[in-house]
Specification:
Elements: H1 9-12, H2 24-34, H3 39-49, H4 62-77, E1 80-86, E2 93-99, E3 113-116, E4 119-123, H5 128-134, H6 139-150, E5 151-156, E6 159-160, H7 168-181, E7 187-192, E8 199-204, H8 206-232, H9 236-241, H10 244-255
Bound molecules: zinc ion.
């Protein structure tokens, strides 16, 4: 059994409700909630649909949020993750058949502490609330603000130092340490091109991936609802109440 479908640490912490795959109505509700939202808010919608407490998902570490999303993806569509990528060197289109295991990071390692430039720092993991708070700022400023937010204590020469007073290179030490403490927050895939042999690293965004799938599925579903509602005068609920197989047959009859 895939590790993602088992009761993991999230369930032990009471963060993971016992949720199954999305129903068609559920899928449309999630789609409606995420539609028109930016990618961060969409990721929160998906994590909540994946069993996270809607009131708490913004305060989960980003890796935990992505774990919930990936779990939902596996329950809805299975563990296979077909991807199309373009080789950055020879521009060949490559078809990849990844699995959820390929994009599940190793367990977090190490304590949430860092040392740099004579400073001893303790930090917490980055949450979606942090990312929302700094977005809109120029990239470098947003990065510094984000790192300052997650520093919980800084000490130099035995004296506490305010996070606002930390130099940029010291903050970068926190950034380096964060990657190992929350690897699921930034999944990187090692890819190589079958045509030219070029090797490169590509990020994998579970929320973006699942959203694209849900968006396509919701649009197909609504298209079918439209066709059958128009043909038979059924309501949306009546169309959805007809199972997918019978619905497909009706669609064939309508378009024949
Ligand atoms: Zn290539």
């Amino acid at each position: 059994m895939d590790a993602l479908t088992e009761a993991g640490p999230l369930a032990e912490e009471g963060l993971l409700a016992d949720v199954g795959p999305l129903t068609e109505e559920g899928l449309l509700a999630v789609w409606e909630a995420g539609r028109g939202q930016d990618p961060l808010r969409r990721a929160l919608v998906l994590a909540a649909a994946g069993g996270g407490d809607p009131a708490a998902v913004a305060d989960l570490a980003v890796g935990r949020r992505e774990e919930l999303v990936l779990g939902l993806r596996v329950r809805c569509f299975g563990p296979g993750l077909p991807c199309a990528v373009t080789c950055p060197s020879c521009r060949t289109e490559l078809e990849l058949e990844l699995t959820a295991a390929d994009v599940t990071a190793a367990a977090p390692e190490g304590e949430r502490v860092a040392r740099a430039g004579g400073f001893e720092l303790a930090f917490r993991l980055v949450t979606t609330r942090d990312l929302l708070a700094v977005r809109g700022a120029p990239r470098a400023a947003a990065r510094r603000a984000l790192l300052r937010r997650v520093v919980t204590s800084a000490v130099a020469d035995g004296l506490p130092v305010a996070a606002e007073a930390l130099p940029a290179d010291v903050l970068e030490a926190v950034a380096d340490a964060l990657a190992a403490r929350d690897p699921q927050a930034d999944v990187r895939l090692d890819l190589d091109c079958a045509e030219c042999g070029h090797a490169w690293t590509s990020p994998f965004d579970a929320s973006g991936y699942l959203w694209a799938e849900l968006d396509a599925q919701a649009r197909r579903l609504l298209h079918d609802v439209h066709a059958l509602a128009t043909a038979y005068g059924w309501t949306e609920a009546e169309v959805l109440a007809v199972g997918p197989e019978r619905r497909q047959l009706y669609l064939e009859l309508v378009t024949a």
